[in-house]
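Morning. Coffee machine broken again, so started the prediction first thing and wrote up yesterday's gels while waiting. Chain of 349 residues, entered below exactly as on the submission form.
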Amino acid sequence: MKLTMLKLISSATTALCLSTANANSSPFTLFGDTLLRYENEHSHLNIPDRERLRVVAHLGAKYRLNKDWQLIGRLSTGLKNKQNVPAVTIHKLNDQPTPDSDVFLERFYIKGKLSSADVTAGKLPWQSWQVTDTFWDRQLAPYGIDMSFQKNDAHTLYAMYAKPLDGNKDTVGELFVGQWQYRYEHNNLRFTIAPWLVSYKGQENAVHAKRDTQQDNLFARLSIEARYGAVSVGADVGRSLSSFDKSDFKEFADQQHSFALQLGYGKLENPGDYQTHLRYLHVERFGVISEFAQNAVARFATSNLRGWDIRVRRKMNDSIWLGSRLSSIEEIIGEEKGVRLRVEAQYKF
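Came back before lunch.
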């Protein structure tokens, strides 16, 4: 695994040199990043502590077909059958199992303009606007097509049809997202509001993505943010509009809400910039689709959780940022809890 990582990092370095040399003469562009992370997970009740060094690496390519259309692909480290885990372990600092490690094609899609709409199709990144990743972990790239139509500076309409992944190759269920975005700007004030609707049609017999992917679910959600200068206040809130049988799900049947509140400061635009956020999360089991919800704050759950998440990063130069993240999370129903500390450095080209 370490040899694989060294090969990927070496490829990224070579890619940087080639991309710089050919930037002005070729429609082909290489890009990538490497993140080194110290991770310490502790204070659980029923799970052993875990302390380790991890790496997340991406290597991608863009090919411009013409002035409107381009092909984009990206390789990633991680677990190919659990793609919201992009990190691989390079050193364990306590006694713990060694997880799998893979390199796989994370994204491959075509992007461009069709009449007055921006269109993306293929194995594509999640592109609708939210304040946080509470509902959908952006490490996951489903098969699908999306369209974004910007009527003017204030109004944007977005729609996506997608087949979420069940591991590396197969899919599970069908997902539709529709969103309206409204933005208002005046002097240093920017206000964004985006109501959205999500319909998920579940599918039986998933091999890897088994957490609530069997259930149909319909969600009404709202993302909202007010930004004044470098300071922002935002929220993602939502509720399932579906019903769940108490005889099957017992106390979880009424867990249908989720919300994330965020206080933020700064952007990582120029060297010396700081960016930080403080979040409070409350994510009930059926307020999201557990298999596709955010995987960054707790090792034991992506739903049926609540707690705090704080992150600070500083941009050191045009290519490097340093940061730290601390999450303290507990179950809403149940007794498990835990603290996750991350200290990170990323190089990007």
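Residues 1-23 have pLDDT under 50 and may be disordered. Going to sketch it on the whiteboard this afternoon.
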